[in-house]
Amino acid sequence: MLVLVGACDNVSVVLRQSLVQTHTPDALKGRVFAVQNIFISCSNQLGAVESGWTTAWLGPVASVVGGGIATIAVVLGFAAKSKALRNWLQ
Question: DSSP readout, 10-22?
């Protein structure tokens, strides 16, 4: 499973980088890459802090279940709000 998850993560990185490079205007590429790198470098640490706090407050099971529910809610929210994204994916 770790190999599979790692491979999927690598594919998602390549896809995100390709989309940013092809859809960002040339005049903004430096700024976009700078912001993207800040978020990428901070995301693991911020996620670890959030997971630790949630686990301390709610316990490990509720933390994992709540994270799954929150993830599904965010995906459904974006799917409901973004008609352009739904059309692009089809």
Answer: HHHHHHHHHHHHH
C-beta pairs of 20-25 under 8 Å, 24+ apart in sequence: none
Q: Are 61 and 49 in contact (CB under 8 A)?
A: no
- What one-letter code names the amino acid at 44? N
Nearest to 29 by CA among 43, 12, 42, 17: 17
Q: C-alpha distances in angstroms, 87 versus 10, 23, 71?
A: 25, 17, 21
Could you read off the pLDDT of 27-57 as tens digits, one per residue? 999 999 999 989 888 888 888 999 999 999 9
